[in-house]
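Design job #97: recover the sequence.
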């Protein structure tokens, strides 16, 4: 549901105009804000916009982590995004299992209309239940990680303060290749795709593919069954990401997870000045 995926019909009336924002059969009015952006509100979210995306994006030109982040106010935050079913929640579980014995962790999950992913983490004992929050984002899950991030900031800051967290994990609701995290929300961004969508996915680009700090290509064990060529995916991932890091993984089988953990901890050390335990 990137800005390219929406169909907008504009009718100008003075300084304000309305459009049809097609989310199934729902329609929402929109208006131009003082900053010139077109805003709308629906599904209980605060007003937000959908920034136009004019290119696939470049890893080398991605938004850098905020240099003035006070990690006493909110712990180092890892954002995990990707389309539905690629393995985001499985990766959340695996990261918790790898890190929870040495680090203070807490997690926030996003679903569109349920709390299923948070309940999955609780059911599988990823962390004590009180360290997990489940957020229902409504019909534009990318807005909750990129534009109107307040729905995630609240629980993340609360968990950080309650448990003196070292690392916070924030899982996006399943979304498309244009869904990337705001740097206000995520200090380190992981984007996860899987081979079932075909070996064309890396070359399709979009901010998730090109600008995440780490790209994970999951479920490599089924590549042959779905006709995906891992060599093509490797070639295209290297090209689309300007050589930025990516990991082939089978998260459910713990293949590649330790490499992902190492990337996260390297970024945590660099950002916070702490040393891994």
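Job complete. Output follows.
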């Amino acid at each position: 549901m990137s800005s390219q995926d929406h169909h907008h019909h504009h009718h100008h009336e003075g300084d304000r105009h309305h459009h049809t924002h097609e989310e199934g059969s729902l329609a929402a009015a929109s208006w131009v804000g003082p900053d010139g952006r077109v805003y709308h509100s629906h599904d209980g979210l605060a007003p937000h916009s959908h920034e136009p995306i004019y290119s696939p994006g470049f890893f080398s030109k991605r938004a850098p982590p905020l240099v003035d982040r006070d990690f006493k106010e909110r712990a180092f935050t890892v954002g995990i995004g990707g389309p539905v079913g690629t393995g985001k929640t499985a990766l959340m579980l695996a990261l918790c299992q790898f890190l929870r014995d040495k680090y203070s962790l807490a997690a926030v999950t996003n679903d569109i209309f349920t709390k299923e992913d948070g309940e999955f983490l609780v059911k599988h004992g990823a962390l004590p239940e009180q360290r997990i929050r489940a957020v229902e984002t409504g019909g534009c899950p990318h807005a909750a990680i990129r534009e109107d991030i307040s729905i995630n900031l609240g629980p993340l800051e609360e968990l950080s303060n309650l448990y003196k967290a070292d690392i916070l994990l924030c899982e996006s609701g399943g979304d498309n290749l244009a869904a990337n995290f705001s740097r206000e929300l995520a200090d380190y961004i992981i984007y996860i795709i899987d081979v079932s969508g075909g070996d064309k996915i890396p070359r399709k680009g979009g901010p998730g593919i090109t600008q995440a700090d780490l790209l994970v290509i999951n479920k490599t064990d089924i590549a042959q069954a779905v006709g995906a060529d891992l060599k093509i995916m490797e070639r295209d991932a290297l090209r689309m990401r300007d050589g930025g890091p990516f990991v082939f993984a089978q998260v459910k089988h713990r293949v590649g997870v330790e490499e992902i953990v190492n990337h996260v901890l390297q970024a945590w050390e660099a950002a916070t000045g702490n040393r891994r335990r």
